[in-house]
Amino acid sequence: MQPDSNGGTQGEEMGILARVGAKLADWSERWFPDAYVFAAIAVVIIAVAALAMGRTPLQVGIDFGKSFWSLIPFTMQMAFVVIAGYIVAVSPPVKKLVIKLAEVPKTPKFAVAYVAFMVMIASLLSWGFSLIFGGILTREISKRVKGIDYRAMGAAAYLGLGSIWALGLSSSAALLMATKTSIPAALYKISGTIPLEETLLNWQNLVMIIVLVCLSMWICYASCPTAEKAKTAEMVGIYYQNEVEEPIGKAQTPGEYLEYSPILTIIIVILGVLYLYNVFSTQGGLAAMDLNVYNFMFLMAGMLLHWTPKSFLRAAAKSVPMTGGVLLQFPLYAGIFGVLMGSGLTDVLANFFVSISTAGTLPVIVGIYSAILGLFLPSGGGKWIVEAPYMLEAANQLHVNLGWMVQVYNAAEALPNFINPFWMLPLLGLTGVKARDLAGYSVLQLMFHAPAVLIMLWLLAKTMPYIPPIIQ
User: Fold this and answer.
1) Residue at 327 is within a domain
2) Are 366 and 432 in contact (CB under 8 A)?
3) For residue 9, what is the DSSP state?
4) 310-341 burial, b for 16+ CB within 10 Å, e for fewer?
5) What pTM did the predictor assign?
6) Cα 138 from chain centroid (whole Å)
7) Span 251-278, pLDDT tens digits
8) Is residue 143 assigned to a domain?
9) In which domain, by residue range, is 354 found?
10) Is 465 exposed, middle or buried (0-12, 13-18, 19+ CB in 10 A)?
């Protein structure tokens, strides 16, 4: 290996792996249908399996239809994760912060590793926020640092969704299990509520976060081409100009005054802060966090950062189109859940996992299964509803910690995001790249992440005792 101009080394094997990843991405882009079609195919497969279990077509249809709208509260909660994350990310103060942050890196290799770090930290707060934040940060750094490979940079900006987002505060599975009103009744009978102290707020989760952040940054730095060998955005006709957003302006009529005044924002935010103070002071700090509190916090922050209702509403209007996939696919996941429960397939799958697993191997086996299923159901929250009943039932039978099984799901569920383009869409829109442009470096990350995640799931499971569910 020869040293490059940025102090790193240029390994030929990295180039080979990246090219293999790009070929796989080309194949998937040609042959993989839209994420909605994957969900629809899953409905068909589960329906056929239910028929094989002895259910009649009418019974399967009733199970599907009765459950179809059962996840409406959860669907809206997940849509608001996207909306609130976008609103915060495009607020004027955050944009100014991004510009300051973009001035830090000076070389291509450091810039790519730096973007990876910033985006992963942002994803611990909100996966929706991290996508928009990563796209804006990428654009700003690309204007300042010459010779950056746009594919490596884009893949780094997506790392929050492909690595640790589900180990952070926007984990839909962990927040769902901590929110009694969001848990389907049939699932609640298996698990009860699982507080965040048993999922996100333990040292085992922190270990996984630190290991995966360090691993991701090292891969980004080691695999990034030198400036001389980079394929820059300009080479493929992508130019990040300084965009001048239309100013908010001033009220033109008395009726518009309150739209341009911060008075209403201040009052609402004060009320919101008082509510949050009561929640956290009376319910045990972060342990009080659930999906409703989480989204409430981000919306209050968004209102405050935009300052006026006019700015806030403009950002909200731009965020809504990004929720289309969530709004259309989650009812299908709810229907799948209904068929699973009505046909008894959950018991069959739970018994299957019990039959091939021990208390020590269940986390690894379920992790592999969940990662593979994620290729076809690219939704952290919706897929959890499908998997949770038989996964947690198997954990109960084998006496595996239920909170850790949630984290098994969280860590494994992120792996297929490296190659599934569904969640890339907001980032692609901001950066102007295509999914297959990122896939080569994403697949490279996956090759290292998959074994690291499975090993940690196995080892750390040994440190967590089984706690029977508490059903109130």
Assistant:
1) yes
2) no
3) B
4) bbbebbbeebeebbebbeebbbbbbbbbbbbb
5) 0.74
6) 19
7) 677 777 888 889 999 999 999 999 999 8
8) yes
9) 12-236+258-461
10) exposed
